[in-house]
Amino acid sequence: MMSDNGNQAMVEITNLKKYFPVTQGLLRRVVGNVRAVDDVTLQIIKGETLGLVGESGCGKSTLGRTILNLHKPTSGTVLFEGTDLSGLSGHDLRSMRARMQIIFQDPYSSLNPRMTVNAIVGEPFIIHKIARGTELDQRVAQLLERVGLNPLLGTRYPHEFSGGQRQRIGIARALALNPSFIVADEPISALDVSIQAQVVNLLEDLQDEFDLTYLFITHDLSMVRYICDRVAVMYLGKIVELGSIEDIYDNPQHPYTQALLSAVPVPDPIVEDQRQRIILEGDLPSPADPPTGCNFNTRCPIAFDRCFEEEPQLKDLLPRHDIACFAAEERLQV
User: What is the DSSP letter of 251?
Assistant: First the structure.
């Protein structure tokens, strides 16, 4: 299917929900749900890097894992290259997953400490019965070399590597089956600042070389501006603003996006001193008990009566710039 701007959509998410039951008592009676992902509709265009940003606990990682069917969706659909993933299981799902991979946030816990690097990177080849023996060794060595690691180190264990090197091992594992779509779940947040740029540059090089499509999940807005083509801003399980890098950074419309961007440091000390920081009052509401109306109304500095009564929908209020905000809707329609 084609996207609104005429480009081909690789991943199409429609009304996707992922609720986790809240249980109570010895009988584990369900008394509620944590609405981690709450009615998300989104398209990821072939060849792009879509940034998914928001504060901790807003549902970013859950959305990424639900797209890959690592979490079974509560409702809604995820189409990958036109195939509905929710209807797949067993061999069909395993075959489809060869084209979708994930780079995990923590390189310290996402690698099996009892396996050598060669075994970790080679495992996908064995599971999918692609290569064994000498051919397997050659492919693993090529992958390690491509991500900047010496293939001779493949006999070592993960604890013998630095954080940046471990993340490169995770990237090599994700690349093993020649995927077309990769969910990068905060791949640099656990790394030193000096290493972050190296890993991001590697991801960009690999994208150009292998024609990859990324969903880049992060809370680092300065890095998003560097690597991403479009940005989706998430708050309490919902997408509240979606647009190009230029739209989001130069013309943010949702008050939550404006607050996030006001917290990003500016290298120029004069500009930094003159900027007005938007401080959000209150805490993030519980996804098990979201507010009535707009999810952001408890912290929004410009909320009015309608915000407490109705739930705003994500609309294209500007060309290729979607916003879920009644205040922005009224302002842009004047």
Answer: S
